[in-house]
Amino acid sequence: MMSNLFDVVVIGAGPGGYVAAIRCSQLGLHTACIDDLKGENGKPSLGGTCLNFGCIPSKALLESSENFERLKHDFGSHGIGAENVSMDVQKMLLRKGKIVSDFTMGIAQLFKKNKVVSIHGSASLLGRDGDLWRIGISGSEEICSKNVIIATGSKSRNLQQVQTDGVQVVDNVGALNFSDVPRRLVIVGAGVIGLELGSVWRRLGSEVTVLESSPLFLSAADEQVAKEALRVFTKQKLSIHFGAQIGTVTQTPEEVTISWRNSQGEDQELNTEKLIVAIGRIPNTQGLGADSVGLKLDSAGRIEVDEYCRTNLPCMFAVGDVVRGPMLAHKASEEGVMVAELIAGQVGCGDLSFVPNVIYTAPEIAWVGKTEQQVRTDGIAYKTGKFPFLANGRARAMGDTGGFVKIVADAETDRILGVHIIGPMASELIQLGVQAMAFAASSEDLARMVYAHPSLAEVMHEAALAVDSRTIHI
């Protein structure tokens, strides 16, 4: 029989929740994790949106579609010939599903190994009884805990003009499961989700149009990176319209019609087989019982926390997408570890200054720290170094030479303020920038390191040299 008294109860089994639960248990705390998510097979599935419907399945499809496009268009230059190249969408989806299934079962095994009690159901905060929090499970069961960690994540933001139906009008979940390649595809939103999903289906043959309400492209990224990304995506025939205001959306069994107004104020209309709504995500606090226990939320619906993820209530913490900061799995996981260690009486680290951002398009885009425009706005005297992949031997051998690495450094101290990459393996290279900034490195520190040759990391080396105007290979 399951105990109903715990040291820690974690609500949510996404990257923030399951990591927090495992770390709590490792530290000797009797821990339970409550989660109500069901996978594509309709069965309980750990890992949250990231593992089931987000980060992992989308990367599986990105890899499949990129391999398909390379075989069709790029491998000829290597002397590799192929005729009648085709894509079996069902097989691609089965591969994606197996990757997800393997990982979700892996988390279940990690829970078992670390003695985390896994409970499937929806959790609600019922109140405090002395030093214990009472938590209801699916309205039929109740457990108590000394500490609570809320890690309920986020959910897709809806478009007011139309409801997603999972078939013609879909969010990120539906966009991962098209049974066939749509001939025409419209995406509302040119953020990370829209760009990645648009890239998948464009490579497989869809005519993709992206409608973005903002007049700016990738406003969170460095201006030069965003400009280069737009140039490349346009060349790839990803049609992106900025300042687009959505009007009415109507459906027939055959197509979806979107009425919209462009940045010049002209009325437009698009007919499409599928519509993906990718206009961001909102914190998931519905049904949690925040009001009933006095848990403070901010104007955006996020749970208010301090730098250590402590809420306004005693012994209650919140991590991940449901609190301030970027909605990123790796940020949620590190917050989960920090909170677990704080509960166990250790010193947790809550610095979010060096959280990397990645967009897994081709080319990949990644950055950490401040952009040049942010440094300029802050009035900081700065210098920059930039180096293209075109001048790198490894990139040439790979046949992937687009993009560059850019480093922003303080003009007086030379301390690195930001690293920005667009190009091959940017998601891997950015970690060198993260490490450098975490250890308060200067651009000179990066410039003086020895880099393997030939390697893509040499572009980071040359960008560091460029900060002091002493590049070697350009």
TrEMBL record:
It is an enzyme of class 1 (oxidoreductase). The keyword GTP-binding does not apply. It catalyses: N(6)-[(R)-dihydrolipoyl]-L-lysyl-[protein] + NAD(+) = N(6)-[(R)-lipoyl]-L-lysyl-[protein] + NADH + H(+). Its main location: cytoplasm. It holds the Pfam family Pyr_redox_2. Disulfide bonds join 50-55. FAD binds at residues 59, 152-154, 321, 327-330. The keyword NAD applies. GO terms for biological process: 2-oxoglutarate metabolic process. One of its GO terms (molecular function) is dihydrolipoyl dehydrogenase (NADH) activity. Its EC number is 1.8.1.4. The active site is at 453 (proton acceptor). Residues 355-464 form the Pyridine nucleotide-disulphide oxidoreductase dimerisation domain. InterPro entries: Class-I_Pyr_Nuc-Dis_Oxidored (IPR050151), FAD/NAD-bd_sf (IPR036188), FAD/NAD-binding_dom (IPR023753), FAD/NAD-linked_Rdtase_dimer_sf (IPR016156), Lipoamide_DH (IPR006258), Pyr_nuc-diS_OxRdtase (IPR001100), Pyr_nucl-diS_OxRdtase_dimer (IPR004099), Pyr_OxRdtase_I_AS (IPR012999). Its cofactor is FAD. Belongs to the class-I pyridine nucleotide-disulfide oxidoreductase family. The active site is a redox-active disulfide bond. This is Dihydrolipoyl dehydrogenase.
